[in-house]
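Take a record:
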Amino acid sequence: MFNDTYELYLVSEVVDKEGTTVDRNMKINFTRKGIAWESDHGTKFQNPAGEDLVSAFNGTIKPPSWSKAPFELDPDDPLNNAFLNEPFIVWMRVAAFPTFRKPYARIEMPLNPELKERTTGR
């Protein structure tokens, strides 16, 4: 459904044993779980009743721009599909003000305090 994809890297320079400066790129892992409000997940947004989401969505058509059906959004976690998919819930949340931010993901590793200071407020 969403075609935005991000990869975050911590880019730093390291001096090796010979004294040569080497660029080091470390991938920063993040999760897309835990980004929706608790009041939205399971209360405001609920999947159709029934045991199987495929049969629950039988007879419906996905929008043409969506690459996947709602019940196929998270193949790794069957409980994170359809209307309970957290990125979908965040996307559907109405903004109260004209300037707003919607979380994309949560970083899963401790950040260097220096890195945190440089990214705060952006």
About this structure: The chain is about 15% helix and 15% strand. The first strand starts at residue 8 and ends at 15. The first helix runs from residue 53 to 56.
